[in-house]
Design goal:
The protein is an alpha+beta fold and 205 residues long. It has helices at residues 66-74, 86-99, 107-120, 129-132, 152-165, 170-186, 194-201, and strands spanning 2-3, 15-20, 24-36, 43-52, 58-61, 78-84, 144-150. The strands form 2 sheets. The chain has a 5-stranded mixed sheet with strand order 1-5-4-3-2. A hairpin with a 6-residue loop joins strand 3 and strand 4.
Amino acid sequence: MKVENDVRIVKEGDQKQVLCSSCGLSPGTYRLCDIEFSDQSATVKEVLAAVCDSCGEVASIPKQSTAKVSAEYNQMKTSVDVRVPAHYLDILALAAQKIDPKLPESFNKSLVLYYLHALSGGRYEANDLPSLLTSSLAQAKCSKRLSFKLNEQSMSEIDGLRKSQGLKNNTEVFRSLILRINEDIVQQKSPKHLPELRNLAAAFV
């Protein structure tokens, strides 16, 4: 199954010649179909696709359908659980309060993921992450759990940050992110990135 290069918008019921893998060049019709990913990890429901009229096989999908397929693929989540000291949650709560006192607790995990993205993408400097794990704040019993549902991009960013910073595992990545949030936001009278973070927070208030 291929993606069509034509950017013309098509509609359900439109017809075209398709190159079917079973029937060769055949008449086809655009229909709503369920499309399964090649790795069989998930199925996208009701995608507009060109279907061979002879055998019913999906021959191609129009350019306009790729956005829905890509969005569905990016929503595939991996569960990640990390153990952290109880005061790490206090750090996140204090940081959120400093950004906007009206923010709900649900913002805290989004803040961590935002820092993950900013540090892995080079927008924020990441060189001090390993040293944060040797601070006195890092030396405590890990009695709390943080759970995340992450897409492929976030998992890739975790892996990249872990390798570039010489961190041992995902837990060290997340602990260092929270300690960095403490350094950047909680401990600063006027956090450098506060206007940017307030723009992020606007969707939660």
